[in-house]
Specification:
340 residues; alpha+beta; Jelly Rolls; 6-stranded antiparallel sheet; 3-stranded antiparallel sheet; 12 helices; 12 strands; 31% helix
Length: 340
C-alpha cells in the first residue's frame, strides 16, 4: 500500500477526505499534536488538513540562530565547544550562509555499507522509487546502516544546537541518480510552526561532480520570506487539493530568483561529506550531463520535536515514526535539560 501511494499521481491523491482517513489510520504518528495544537491555539482535529491559514495572527519566535544573536551568545552556548573547529566557524556564519559542510562525516566503509544495503533492498524489491523515479523514501526502515546514521549523535547534537530544541528525524530519501529537481525550499513541503524548525542533511555516497547532476543552492535565499500556498495561486478548496500546486510553486520560485537576482552555487562534493542546510534555503538538482553516471546520495530531514509539522502544499500533518523517535529520546536526549 505504501509503495502504491508513493507512486500514485492521479485524481484520488487530491481528495481531502482520503487524507483524513489515511491520517486516522496512522494516528500513532500524529499523537504528538494532541498537546501541541492546544498549546499553539489550534482548535481542530489532528486528522484534519492544516496549512498557513491556521496560524494567521499567531506569533512565535524564530530559531535562535535566525534571530539577532551576538558571537558571544553563540560561543557561550553550553554545547558550542563540542564541535570541530571548522564546524564552530561555520556555525558563527549560519545566519548569513544558511548551510554547513561537514567534510569526511562518514568513512568509506560506512558509505559502502549503505550503498550495498540499498542495492540489496532494490534487488529484493523491499524498497522502490516513488513517482519521480529518482527517490527511494524511508529505506531506513529496512537498512540498519541508514537508521544508525539518522541517530548519529554528532548530527543530533549539531541540529539541536542550531535550533536550540530537540530534533527528530522525519524521513530518509536515497538517490542513485540526480533528482534534477527545480529550485525549491523544503519549508513548503515540510513546514513548521513556528517557522524554520526544519533541517536537512545531504550525504554524498560517492564523489559527485558536475556531470552527475550535483546539488545547487541560491546564496542568501534562506533569509527571504517563507512562501505559503497564498503566494502562488494555489486553488485548493475544502474538498479538493490543487493538483497543479507544485508546478505553480516552482514557477513562483523561479520568478523570485529572477526578481531578487539570486546567485546559484553548484556543490561538487566528496564521498562521505555532508551538506546541511536551513529550512528555507532554495536548492535543487542540476541537470545530469552524463546519464550513464550515478549520483548516489541520501538526504535526511529533521523537525524540532515540539513544533507543529505539516506539508503546506498538500495541507497534511506530518506523520512521525514513533518507534524511531522513541529510540532517539532514550539514546540521546534523556537527561538533557538545557533544550526546550
Amino acid at each position: 500500500m505504501h509503495r502504491f501511494i508513493q507512486r500514485y499521481t492521479g485524481f484520488l491523491r487530491n481528495i481531502r477526505i482520503l487524507h483524513y482517513l489515511y491520517n486516522f489510520l496512522h494516528q500513532k504518528g500524529l499523537k504528538h499534536n494532541q498537546h501541541l495544537y492546544p498549546f499553539f491555539g489550534i482548535n481542530k482535529s489532528i486528522y484534519s488538513s492544516i496549512s498557513h491559514k491556521d496560524f494567521i495572527g499567531k506569533k512565535a519566535k524564530a530559531p535562535w540562530l535566525d534571530a539577532i544573536v551576538s558571537e558571544k551568545d553563540i560561543q557561550n552556548h553550553p554545547e558550542f565547544g563540542c564541535f570541530p573547529t571548522n564546524i564552530e566557524a561555520q556555525l558563527m556564519q549560519w545566519k548569513k550562509n544558511g548551510f554547513i559542510i561537514w567534510e569526511n562525516f562518514l568513512d568509506t566503509e560506512t558509505v559502502d555499507i549503505i550503498n550495498g544495503e540499498i542495492d540489496a533492498l532494490l534487488e529484493k524489491n523491499s524498497v522502490g522509487f516513488n513517482y519521480t523515479n529518482t527517490k527511494i523514501f524511508n529505506a531506513y526502515k529496512h537498512a540498519f546502516s541508514i537508521r544508525k546514521i539518522m541517530k548519529d549523535k554528532r548530527l543530533l547534537q549539531l541540529f539541536s544546537f542550531i535550533l536550540n530544541r530537540k530534533v527528530i528525524p522525519f524521513q530518509s530519501i536515497n538517490f542513485l541518480k540526480g533528482s534534477e529537481q527545480r529550485a525549491h525550499s523544503d519549508a513548503i513541503h515540510m513546514t513548521t510552526f513556528p517557522q524554520g524548525n526544519l533541517l536537512a542533511a545531504w550525504f554524498a555516497l560517492e564523489d559527485i561532480n558536475i556531470d552527475q547532476g550535483p546539488l545547487s543552492y541560491y546564496i542568501g535565499s534562506h533569509t527571504l520570506p517563507y512562501i505559503t500556498n497564498a503566494d502562488y495561486g494555489n486553488s485548493a478548496n475544502k474538498w479538493m487539493l490543487d493538483g497543479e500546486a507544485n508546478e505553480k510553486y516552482e514557477k513562483k520560485i523561479a520568478q523570485i530568483i529572477q526578481e531578487q537576482h539570486l546567485q546559484k552555487k553548484i556543490i561538487t562534493i566528496k564521498k562521505g561529506d555532508v551538506f546541511i542546510w536551513h529550512a528555507n534555503l532554495l536548492h535543487g538538482g542540476e541537470p545530469q550531463l552524463n546519464k550513464d553516471l550515478t549520483r548516489k546520495s541520501m538526504v535526511v530531514h529533521y523537525f524540532a520535536s515540539d513544533v507543529i509539522a505539516y506539508h503546506e502544499i498538500s495541507e497534511r500533518p506530518a506523520i512521525f515514526d514513533v518507534e524511531l523517535v522513541g529510540e532517539i529520546e532514550d539514546d540521546f536526549y534523556k537527561g538533557q535539560t538545557h533544550l526546550l
